Give the backbone structure.
Amino acid sequence: MKIAVGSDHGGFLLKDVIMKYLKEKNIDFTDFGCFSKDSVDYPDIGQAVGEAVAAGEYDKGIICCGTGIGISISANKVPGVRAALCGDCFSAKASREHNDANVLALGERVIGAELAKMIVDTWLSSEFQGGRHGRRVEKIAKIEEKYRRS
Ligand code: RB5
């Protein structure tokens, strides 16, 4: 499994925690930045990680900003991305099982490092259940089709 990881400055320290955790678990990842605590714009990173996942270059993405909100909204603008902002393990599991989320968003200013690691663990080990959930995820793709411009 290959994971695209990214954050703005507000999620920089949490991204570091997540990368160390992935390394410990021998999970392959690429860091899409940012690379210091200097201020950057979260849409740039959300878009980059979203595009890499949507293109199939990575199996999943994990993105962080201060709240997880701005970067998840940005990633979700890329067709094919289903980014889920999670602050608990129940939502992380459901976002995989029901929504087939392919990007996990976390808020550094909202949750602690230990909870973030548990959420990542839960999210990565949960599988999409398909069935009625598949029909609903297909409907999300149809919404994207309706508004696709190019
Ligand atoms: C940056 O200050 C902050 O706005 C950003 O990290 C994020 O929380 C936006 O949603």
